């Protein structure tokens, strides 16, 4: 059986019994609930949950699991002339999702921002015969091997025409965002940049649930990398984290404010 952590959604290698602990959740950037470590499997997830689809703009759709499962992030499906890309991942890969993505042309590639959203990426890769792009700095957090896994290095990777991956680091050493030039310079950020509830700022954290900040020097490095990326729209990991204009300036203002509070 493939065991899946109910707190973070990470899947582990096939075994008769689940691991004693989830390595992702025992790391200080995540948490083990007071009720203790709990596990489920892919079949139970599909039986109890379904995926909700929403079009943000032509060529960009979100996929969210309902009722909420684990961390509750949304995945993104980019529809490009060179092929479709799944950005970030969710644990629930049900038959309806497979049929819909297949009808839309399948997947050319899967790219993940950081380990909290790895979930069942190996299953998505197998079903759609798509390579997974994960930054090599986060290799240790992959809990299930996959023959299609590609660990990329450096700070930038051209994934497809008009689609690039950029390593910002911060939350994880390999923390990655995706720039899509085909949608008027859109940045998909997961929670490497966490869009705040007011929709007018972002935050930069080592751990969101445990409220541990990043050092000022790290935030300055992230801001320097952001300056080299052209984007105006930005979409985050969770529903309604949608910034339709002025996103780059907002991120740079937020970095200055963040560092000023640390100082």
Describe the structure.
With 263 residues, this protein is α+β, with helices and mostly antiparallel strands. It has six helices and 19 strands. The chain has helices at 23-26, 42-48, 95-103, 121-128, 216-227, 247-262; strands at 3-5, 39-41, 50-57, 60-66, 75-80, 83-87, 109-111, 132-135, 149-152, 156-160, 163-167, 176-180, 186-190, 194-195, 202-203, 205-207, 212-213, 233-236, 242-243. The strands form five sheets. A seven-stranded mixed sheet has the order 3-4-5-6-7-8-9. A six-stranded mixed sheet has the order 10-11-12-13-18-19, with no helix packed on it. A hairpin with a 2-residue loop joins strand 5 and strand 6. Helix 5 packs antiparallel against helix 6 (247-262). The protein is globular. 42% of the residues are buried.
Radius of gyration: 17 Å
Low-confidence stretches: none
N-to-C order of helices and strands = EHEHEEEEHEHEEEEEEEEEEHEEH
Mean pLDDT, all residues: 97
Total number of beta strands: 19
Give the biggest beta sheet. 7 strands, mixed
Order of strands in the sheet with most strands? 3-4-5-6-7-8-9
| SS element count, helices | 6
Terminal Cα span = 50 Å
Helix content: 10-25%
Strand content bin:
25-35%
Overall SS class: alpha+beta
**What coarse outline follows from CA principal-axis ratios?**
globular
């Amino acid at each position: 059986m493939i065991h899946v952590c109910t707190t973070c959604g990470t899947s582990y290698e096939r075994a008769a019994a689940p691991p004693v602990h989830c390595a992702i959740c025992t790391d200080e950037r995540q948490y083990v609930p007071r009720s203790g470590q709990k596990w489920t499997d892919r079949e139970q997830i599909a039986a109890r949950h379904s995926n909700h689809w929403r079009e943000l703009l032509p060529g960009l759709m979100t996929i969210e699991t309902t009722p909420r499962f684990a961390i509750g992030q949304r995945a993104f499906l980019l529809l490009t002339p060179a092929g479709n890309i799944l950005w970030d991942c969710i644990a629930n890969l049900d038959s309806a999702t497979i049929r819909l993505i297949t009808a839309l042309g399948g997947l050319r590639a899967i790219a993940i921002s950081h380990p909290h959203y790895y979930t069942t990426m190996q299953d998505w890769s197998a079903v759609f015969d798509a390579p997974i792009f994960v930054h090599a700095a986060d290799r240790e957090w992959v809990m299930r091997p996959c023959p299609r896994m590609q660990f990329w290095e450096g700070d930038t990777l051209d994934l497809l025409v008009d689609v690039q991956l950029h390593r910002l680091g911060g939350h994880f050493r390999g923390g990655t965002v995706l720039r899509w030039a085909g949608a008027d310079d859109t940045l998909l950020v997961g929670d490497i940049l966490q869009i705040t509830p007011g929709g007018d700022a972002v935050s930069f954290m080592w751990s969101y649930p445990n409220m541990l900040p990043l050092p000022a020097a790290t935030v300055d490095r992230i801001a320097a990398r952001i300056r080299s990326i052209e984007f105006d729209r930005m979409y985050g990991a969770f529903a309604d984290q949608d910034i339709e204009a002025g996103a780059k300036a907002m991120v740079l203002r937020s970095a200055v404010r963040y560092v000023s509070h640390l100082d």
